[in-house]
């Protein structure tokens, strides 16, 4: 029953079902937050809710209960990540699959040439389990029952991590478009496009598709991206295994004469593996598309979708890495990985239709993944407008933001087309985002009992991830300087 807290104060009922909302980004949330107000009697401090004038009547409680609102930020309805909260476990699985199986997995066999069979499989397994744990941490931290807040964005980390991913997608997608055209129309009289022009074709397709308004609206795109990712991963390892091992294949780990060079080569290989596991930082954004309340928190369908998605991811990545290394050994191309190996070693004895379909799957997945990785950037750009103007972004400005981001990535792709050769270095930069920061977040927000299992686990993994990041970055820089890469600014091949 409703209780009168103090004379003249609002009448309030215990909330039967509280819906979680994102932290307020604006100065004028629809309902103000609750505050502790100390009365004259200090022994009987009571929690009093400040409400807007229209909720001061006895009808206030039923109205509040009917709307099931606590702290509502109108900006959530204006931004692409939280604009539509009708997601479910299937949406979570689609988005997670599309972002979890990416083109970066194609270079996993390259890491095995340094680590060998045993340590390669161990490293891949440890990275997979570690990433799955930190993903579970983010799912749990997404919403707080104590404050009623939903933390829907990983904003500060996106510019460095996902902006670079979109550039890599343009490079791989554009280059694969060129290969696909040569396969399908190799004897056409039409003049072939240059690599830069193929980059532009890919970017235009990605920018057009990016006009879909919010994360839920691209669920179908994510489904297509997930299916094509599973398709090309499966086709690649099956082609490699069925064609058999190449003559003269060696599985002995590559040895360096200098011990320091050997250490850095091993660390660089670990960086390549880490680069393959950097997609789950979109977890908060994906979970933000789901409705959530006390009885049915969003973490339940989210975790259900993640478990299905990661089972499929494991069934794709492990056969790809193990089958690719078994087939090519040390002959796996360091740049391009599995895709280049199939064209280089099996381009003549494999059906052209199969090769063309594999390339088409890579292209479709790259265009689909661009939408997933670009959405947080779109959300960030639009939030700057909504915070200033206190109204939704008009369609023409939204389109301009997304085109500006897409063609900005295109410019970087043309300027630095050798970005794929820096997989180990990029992996080192991404390590704390994927493996360390979620652990520190858990310690800060959940505050586990000191010296408990969760306290030791998160401190250990967080510190290990931070130290590993520093070592991997140093190793990546050393390998680039020592072995050299073909630096061709503004000259994509």
From TrEMBL:
Domain Amino acid transporter transmembrane: 86-481
Domain of life: Eukaryota
Designated name of the protein: Amino acid transporter, transmembrane
Organism: Corchorus olitorius
Lineage summary: Eukaryota, Viridiplantae, Streptophyta, Embryophyta, Tracheophyta
Transmembrane segments: 89-111, 117-139, 151-176, 196-212, 219-239, 259-277, 308-328, 353-374, 395-416, 422-443, 455-481
Cellular localization per UniProt: Membrane
InterPro entries from the UniProt entry: AA_transpt_TM
Main localization of the protein described in the UniProt heading: membrane
GO biological process: amino acid transport
Cellular component per GO, a single term: membrane
Keywords: Amino-acid transport, Membrane, Transmembrane, Transmembrane helix, Transport
